[in-house]
Amino acid sequence: MAEEVDFYPMWESLGMDTKAHDMLLGAVGQMYGDMFLAQQNRPQACDYLNVFATNLHSGEIKEKLDAKETGAAKKIIGSFCLYVPEEIVTAAGGIPIGLCSGADFATSEVEKHLPRNTCPLIKSFAGFRLGRVCPYIQSADLVIGENTCDGKKKAYEWFATQKPMYVVDVPHVRTDETKQMWRNEIHRLAERLEQETGQKITPESLHEGIILANNKRRALQRLSKLRAADPTPISGLDSLLLTQAAFMDDPVRLADAINKVCDECEQRVAAGEGVAPKGAKRILYTGTPMAVPNWKLFNIIEKSGGVVVGEECCTGSRYYKDLVAETGETVDQMLDDIADRYFNIQCAIFTPNHGREQDVMQMAKDLNADGIIDCSLQFCTIYEMEAFGMELTAQENNVPYMHITTDYSTEDEGQLKTRIQAFLEMI
Ligand code: BJ8
Questions:
Q1: Which pTM was predicted?
Q2: Is 155 in the pocket of ligand 1 (CB under 6 A)?
Q3: Is residue 406 part of a domain?
Q4: What pLDDT digit, counting tens, does each position of 100-122 carry?
Q5: I want to staple 120 with a disulfide (CB 3.0 to 4.6 A). Which of 155, 262, 303, 408 is the partner?
Q6: Is 90 in the pocket of ligand 1 (CB under 6 A)?
Q7: What is the whole-number distance in angstroms between the Cα of residue 81 and the centre of ligand 1?
Q8: Dihedral (C-alpha) 344, 345, 346, 352: value to the nearest 10 degrees?
Q9: Among 133, 167, 200, which residue terminates a domain?
Q10: 169 and 231 inside one domain
Q11: Is residue 332 assigned to a domain?
Q12: Same domain (yes/no): 182, 216
């Protein structure tokens, strides 16, 4: 039997509130059991996710702290957005961590610093910091923010009083000039990271960073293709968690685990085995990102008899659909290649952003979706705004569409269930 490790000294050394943290872990553990472990016909290789979820606040974070201790890595670098390239962090000797948070915490404390009508994702990371319950936020040596939505960019002004921060300037329109600005911004970020870690980025280290991230993306692309089968071999919940893991887990281990899931899914597809019966209503998700442990919507869809077959969002296809070119030879070339790949992420902060509608329609076709559920987190103006255009595009393409606005609370679960069940019956 594996030796039990006592993680309390580690949590205490990170300045965490261990009592509050126990409560959080208890609640998330319960949720994981009710949502993930209660699934039927789950691929066995998804057991990896059970281990990942169990270790998320313990073994996973210890591994990163140990890497720093032994000198295998220099710093832990947190970020909140897909526009922050993990390749550069890795190349500079940092460990990249996604800090977006998916649960309400210390809300009344948060509302002393941020307006009540702020998006739950922002309030959540603020609450995790104020409540001292996130070992990732606690251990981040530097946090890279980004000038994206109004909520995040203003919240970072406050967050900078909590953690050392550097904010990258993401353009909001796509022109040749802004593309060049973005390239310059990425070069500046590389310099800042080198300064932070004290490690020079070399052609070799940057190439390795690109390959590490691309390999995760290749594995997720493979999984995405397999989900086109009917019956689909894996649930939306498990697929979502595999992508969420890409922001925290060891990249080599995770890519290997995803490929093992794919191997099993290939066998299932060949045998006509699925996670839901053939003919179950197939949903394409689009909208705001889903940070751990925001699994509410997928759980409702799948417990209502539907199955999520794809996610057009930052915790979905936007993370893995495009690779960074692997042909660059100099650091400058590779940084430009990275900038160009990230410039193409179809986030609603860009105007116009019709590429997102095209991506959604293409995914609906490729994955044989029966309907689209477009979800915005409450108070996310940019995704709420884009929902109107998305609905029109879906109508033009004869794809049933539903828009949802929700938050991290459980209060609207009953209402969401009713609406989703009606949508599944209608399509
Ligand atoms: S690239 S989607 S991760 S900005 S949900 S905090 S937009 S008010 S998360 Fe995003 Fe980067 Fe874009 Fe992706 Fe603001 Fe909206 Fe909240 Fe959001």
A1: 0.97
A2: no
A3: yes
A4: 899 999 999 999 999 999 999 99
A5: 408
A6: no
A7: 7
A8: -50
A9: 200
A10: no
A11: no
A12: no
